[in-house]
Amino acid sequence: MRKLLYTFVVLFSMSLAANAQVRTLKGKVGDQNSAPLQGVTVRLQGKADFLLFSSVGFRTERIKVTAAGTLNVTLTEQVNIMDEVVVTAGGVKTKRKEIGTTSSIIKAESLVAGKSTSIAGGLQGKVAGLQVSNTGGGINPNFRLVLRGQRSLTEDIVVLNGSGAAALYGSQASNGALIVTTKKGKNGVTQVGFSQTTTVESVAFFPKIQERFGAGGSGYGVDLQGFGNFSYLENQSYGPAFDGSKRPLGPPLADGSQDSTYYQFYPGHNDFWNQGLINQTDFNVSNGDANSTMYFSAQYVGQSGTTPGDLYNRSNVRLNGTRRIGNTINLSYSTSYTQNRYDITTATGSMYDQMLNMPVNVDITRYKDWQNDKFANPNGFYNPWYPNPYFTAANNRSATRNDYLTANVELKFTPVKGLDFVARQGITTRNYSNKNTTGAFKFTDYAKHTDASSKSDIAASVSDGMGYSTQLLTDFFTQYKKTISDFSLNVILGGQWKQDQSKGINVSANGLVVPGLFNVNNGVGTPGASESNSLSHSMGAYSKGTFGYKNYLYLTVSGRKDWVSILAPENRTFFYPAAEMSFIASDAFDFLKNSRTISYLKLRGGWSKVGQVNLGPYALLPTFSPASGFPFGSQAGYTVGNTLVSNNLKPEITKGYEVGFDLNMFDDRFTSNVSFFHTNTTNQTVSTGVSGTTGFTSLRTNTGETMSEGLEVTTHVTPIRSKDWNVTVGGIYTLLKNEVVSISADLPRLGLTGSGVGSYAVAGQPFPVIMGYDYKRDASGHVIVDANTGLPTQSDTISNLGNAQAKHKLSLDGSIKYKAFTLSFLFEYRGGYQIFNQIGPGMDWSGTGWRTALYDRKRFVFPNSVIADPANPGKYVTNTNIEIANGNGNNGFWTDGINRGVTSNYVTSADFWKLRELSIAYNVPSKLLANSKFIKGCTVSLQGRNLLVWMAPDNYYTDPEYSSAGSTSNGIGLSGYETPPSRYYGATVSFKF
Amino acid sequence: MKNITAIILSGVMLLATSCNKYLDINTDPNNATSASAELILPQALNYTAGMISSFNNYGVQVGGYGANAGGYGGFGTSITYNFTTSEYSGLFSSSYDLLNDYQTIINKTAGDANYNYFNAAANIMKALHFQLLVDTYNDVPYMDALQGSKKLSPTYTDAKVIYKSIADSLDAAIAKINAGAANTNVVPLGSADIMFGGNTTSWKKLANTIKLRILVRGNGKVTFSNSTFSSDGFLTTDALINPGYTRDNGKQNPKWNTWGWGYTGSSGTKSWMPSTFSKTFYDGIKLTDNGRGKAVYYQFPTTPTNQLGFEGVSVVSSPEGTFWFPSTSRVGTSAGNSVGVLKGPNAGLPVITASESYFIQAEAALKGIISSTTAAAAFSNGITASFKYLYTLPDGSVSGNPTADAATYLTDNPSSYLVNYGLATSDAQRLEAIITQKWVALNFVNSDQSWNDYRRTLYPKLVNTPGATAFQTFASRVSESTRPDKLPTRVLYPASEGSYNTANVPKGISPFSSLIFWAQ
User: Fold this and answer.
1) Cα–Cα distance, A836 to A973 (Å, whole number)
2) Within an 8 Å CB–CB cutoff, is residue B263 touching chain A?
3) Is B44 touching A (CB cutoff 8 A)?
4) Which residues 420-449 of B have a C-beta within 8 angstroms of A?
5) What's A414-468 look like in SS3?
6) Paired residues of A507 in beta bridges
7) Which residues 163-182 of chain B have a CB within 8 Å of chain A?
8) Contact between chains at A639 and B15 (C-beta distance less than 8 A)
9) Which residues of A touch B495 (CB under 8 A)?
10) What is the separation of C-alpha A571 from the centre of its chain, rounded to a whole number of angstroms?
């Protein structure tokens, strides 16, 4: 890309001056229906050989310039909801060439190639420096977005995805910003689109289970070989090896009937998960004339999940428009209303645990019909201790409704050319309610008292919550642009007001009396009730100036002062400046201008400081609340809150710089962006665990410094570009170094996920690290075992077991176009980090875990172990023959704390490769559609997401993208009982009318 | 342009003036940001009741009263005793959470003579909880503890130093109460005192009783500054906490709530049952005690039992409400109103029973620490008070005749010096009788105190030879302990201390060899 030559309406004409030749071109740009297009950008590419025609919402056309004459160009539209997503670290929307920092634009085409139902899913692997992790399984999963490493030591991260503002974002953008630009109508074009996508979801990776041993254990005696005996009701798989014989399952029922199974492996643990189905229907219509545009869209997504019984749907309508009023006023608006509904189980974790506690000689899928099948019914279910997981999923439900309204209206007044006054009001509001229920179940006396049963009646309960959260964002700014000969000036001066308000109410009741009536008035005892309210204000005054010289050198300086309500008056004001520079070398120097090799070279750099208040309202004072049953009648009682607070908290400050360049070569057949960044965040507002002996369990204070730096390289090559063929391949590589520089003298480390084993910030270590128990080891790392029992010992205190943040991220993408066919793919790799798989101890407990059969359930010598050398006290010798005797049975090594309590047994490499996206699309050529009078375009595509996953060989458990701490916590590195990761594959057909 | 700039500037000026109004909205609408001593004390006392109940659970499980019941597995370290940092960690963390409530009262009322009663009550309870901590963990943070951000990594204080210091603070609390009584403006404890209803004499007796417990346990190991007691004497009635327990959400007696039934009628914990060893003191194998046996156990004398660590399908499941609830009316939504240890959802929770007070006095008299009573008299009072506590219904009324049944108890065991104190021929036998009777009296009442006494005195006597039966020892069949009695010596400090107080937490603690300073 070289220069922006001109932007025309409908018609264009231009003169090209290259190699002393002058050619004049004239022509017309229209869409597929030959309707003239507005707002088309025409650029000259390469050595003036090509012209690029682009317009928002249309595919860019590249036309070879042959001779002077008339050109008629047809742009084809892209059928997408979002036009483009711009990710910037500074949060300012502006011309890309002026930007001195990295910004990535994700075209809608790329965003929706894999047909993810969420934007976050569509962004995975597509933005340099942005890590998008699917933190949980299940329906409408959560994603965690982290730009350029974690900075904040606290729990929350800010992901800015509001469509409200487009100027300066203020504090919210201190971790980067994600800006979604929605579609608008076009002048003179009426268009109707419709598309239907059907996607199948299935489990892509199962925890690895042993397939050789079934129910039983040494608690039932041992056979001659020392294997635990079979038991017809045991949940643990520590019985003898499979022999295929028919065996009873559970005690006989009250009517004398007996459940049974063949003592062999059944793949029920994998078949338990359903095949999910997602149906997505999109409709849109747009229109425009000289004074106004309109865009309307509607969407419906219906989904059934891989967890039996989980359902989800989402409906959305959107109306965007612009209107010119007189010659000086432009009004634009966008509104979107979304509602989603969940009907899911609340007991995913216990359901999963119960499933793992069904030995693999039991075909789980036989127990689906718990209402009618007497062996699947909780009364007759063979296992007296762990309920039927199908029953648990069905009996513990959550019905949630969320309604979202986002709306923006902007009034732009342009009294004279170059001077704008803009007023903008935005609202983002969510209104929700949910009802969680547990059904009652009364067991028969026979079920309760047969064979050491622990079945006991389940009391019905209900919990009902509702609330809202609303953000109002008001902006006033004025922008002044002026160009005087070689110099340009663009100054913005403005103010911003933000209000966040929310309320939540929850009531609950237990012991529901009338069966099936889930209402709080149907309980016994005092219903539970809680209320929370929150209101905060902030305002900012900002100014920004961009000074340009000859369209190739830009300097931008900006400053902002914020006032926030959530800090004490003496601390609530703070100022932060930034500066950046952009230099388009390929426009500045003649030798580059004329270079046949280099088509575009931009050098850029920037420095910024951002203040941020990482705190909710009302966090400055200690709190006292009623506890442990109070009030008892008229007697009140209050307890002291457990957080040590300070009324003197200050904003956190992030300072950073970045430098980089964009280089395109060989007529843009090679494109690249390279950036290096470095940020330091100090004075963090931290809420961390402290020793309970202080009287408190957490401390909220300003302390600590984190650093992140990294290298981002994006490069693409187009080896084949012809009339019929276009092949582009490339990739994005991100190297990230994310460290905790210091915390404080008082606190050597901060727990991000509570006390004990978990995710920690430790000074001088990567951020965060997994800390947990290990075995006691000698100086060279061998595990020390007892010379008599062969048993290792757990370490006294927790230690660093690995970093939880991926050091290397690489994505490889490509697209191959042949005529009307487009094949595209995207692979993503993350590496150089670890994860603690918390499901591991549970799998070893149940005896289904792969590890438990590593030594064939026999005595074994602990690998890589040493014993104390009796001849040399304090020295150790290699252990070659002291075996752990109880390597078998359900009171043995595998179920004991000495295995399950040692974190390092379950900390594995988190490295993975995934085939994120693969799609093939066919654009039905217009001549084939000519027969139909009304269809103007048709595309058919097949696509898949997360089709293939390759985990590290020691990861037997689950997707290392998962984080049991949730999508908003920095306490990453721990996965739990999330539903197994899914792959999606489906087909889309879309029409244009 | 100039006009526009002027407009903008005046706009900014206007904004600045309304700025404070716009920002001064940070008043918490959700939680109180201050609370008076009158509001904190009742909550703290009720928290104490919950903690005492948790300590009792620990005593039941480790101290020999309970065993694993049928239908449950995964007892892990509960039956191997090879404790990790997670077992019973709540005893540590919740104690300090609770102590912070008492410390807040102490800090709030310090120097305010009108609040002497509140200050004294908080100090007495603080002393009680530090004794419970020391008896469980030996050295714990004390001098540096409860100071908030002033000491973020509190150091550990020697257990003996803590014992001496809390004995002193109990004396000081009694002096404060006496000073309060002389002050006409003193704020009475009133309804905030959900233990004694504002009776300050009872508070002084409680203080003396705790101090006596400390002096007896620290006898010969700690040099106390004052070994005399105020004339108020020791507890002669049960110190019960009852804020108005009732069968309602979060408002049940905590012990009932754990072991009996929830307020909805759902069953409490069913994973434990009486130990075979414990029943031998009732069913005639060691001693005959029909009165208390029937009051404590369901289906006595045929109550099923188990030996800790024996797992198998033959182990009987616990009924809903456990075997420690004697009543045959066992519908969860109406059960209660019974004698025994669980009694009902509305029963008060004993902090220290009169019976325990008497047995502490008996031992103190035996060892010459006090002379206000004789060991024999206190021993006899202890047995009668135990019958009385067990025969008391939740509403405080007594069912049956505890005095007569206590007398029957003596005649039912005519040749046992464990029952008939006069038959004991040596101080060792006398001590064994006192501690064994205390063990019986505290069965499922304050079981942790018995566990402390066992570790200190090794009574009740166990048979330690290999192959000892379930009647002869309460040690787990799968104990990994290296001690002759196959029992643990203590639990470990919680993982949170390893994480957040790494430098100070004592290292190398073994559940089989690290002793509490008074232990053998």
Assistant:
1) 6
2) yes
3) yes
4) none
5) EEECCEEEEEEEEEEEEEEEEEEEECCECCCHHHHHCCCCCCCCECCEEEEEEEE
6) A464, A529
7) none
8) no
9) 755-757, 798
10) 34
Read off the amino acid at residue A920: I
B466 touches chain A (CB under 8 A): no
Pairing of strands A834-837, A974-975: parallel
In a domain, B518, yes or no: no
Q: Do A526 and B251 touch (CB under 8 A)?
A: yes
Q: Does some domain include residue B29?
A: no
Cβ contacts of A618 on chain B, cutoff 8 Å? 26-31
Tell me how close the Cα of A522 comes to any Cα of chain B, in angstroms: 12
Chain B CB contacts of A511 under 8 Å are 262-266, 333
Tell me if B484 is assigned to some domain. yes
Report how far apart, in Å, the C-alpha atoms of A585 and of each of A100, A546, B11 are. 13, 18, 42
**Residue in chain A nearest B105 by alpha carbon:** A640
Which residues of chain A are within 8 Å of residue B74 when distances are taken between CB atoms? 845, 895
Q: Which of helix, strand or coil describes residue A344?
A: strand
Tell me, what's the pLDDT at B6? 59
Q: Do B15 and A451 touch (CB under 8 A)?
A: no
What are the sequence ranges of the domains in chain A? Answer: 4-75
Helix (H, G, I), strand (E, B) or coil at A880: coil
Structure token digits, residue A921:
């699309």
User: Phi and psi dihedrals of B512, rounded to 5?
Assistant: -115, -10
CATH of the domain at B274: 1.25.40.390
Contacts of A286 (CB under 8 A, 6+ apart): A183, A184, A185, A186, A189, A190, A191, A293, A294, A295, A296
* pLDDT per position as a tens digit, A380-389: 999 988 999 9
Enter the DSSP assignment of B419: T
Question: Side chain identity at B204, as an amino acid letter?
Answer: K
Angle at A205 between CA A203 and CA A210, to 5 degrees: 115
B49 or A153: which leads in pLDDT: B49
Looking at beta carbons, which residues of chain A come within 8 Å of B246? 632
Residues 11-40 of B with CB under 8 A from A: 12, 15, 19-20, 22-35, 39-40
* In chain B, residues 233-252 whose CB comes closer than 8 Å to chain A: 243-252
Alpha carbon dihedral A480, A483, A488, A491, in 10-degree steps, equals: -10
CA B496 from centre of chain: 22
In this prediction the ipTM stands at 0.92
**Tally of structural domains, chain B:** 1
Contacts of A644 in chain B (CB under 8 A): 148-149
Least trusted range by pLDDT, from A616-625, A789-798, A942-951, B172-181: A789-798
Closest CA to B341 of B280, B283, B300, B288: B300
Exposed/middle/buried for B312, CB within 10 Å: 0-12, 13-18, 19+?
exposed
In this structure, are residues A309 and A138 in contact, taking their beta carbons and an 8 Å threshold?
no
Q: How far is B480 from chain A (nearest CA, A)?
A: 11
Question: How many angstroms separate the CA atoms of A652 and A46, rounded?
Answer: 46
| Helix (H/G/I), strand (E/B), else coil: B59 | helix
Q: pLDDT, tens digit, for every residue of B385-430?
A: 999 999 999 999 999 999 999 999 999 999 999 999 999 999 999 9
B46 within 8 A of A630, measured Cβ to Cβ = yes
Residue B364 dihedral angles phi and psi, to the nearest 5°: -60, -40
- Residue B485 belongs to a domain: yes
Q: Using the beta-carbon criterion (under 8 Å), do A897 and B42 form an inter-chain contact? A: no
- Stretch A116-126: mean pLDDT: 71
Q: Per-residue pLDDT averaged across A95-108, rounded?
A: 62
Q: Which two tokens stand for residue A37?
A: 């297009």
Q: CB of B96 within 8 A of CB of A642?
A: no
**Helices in A71-225 by DSSP H: which ranges?**
108-111, 119-123
**With a threshold of 0.90, does the pTM exceed it?**
no
Q: Give me the residues paired with residue A390 across strands.
A: none
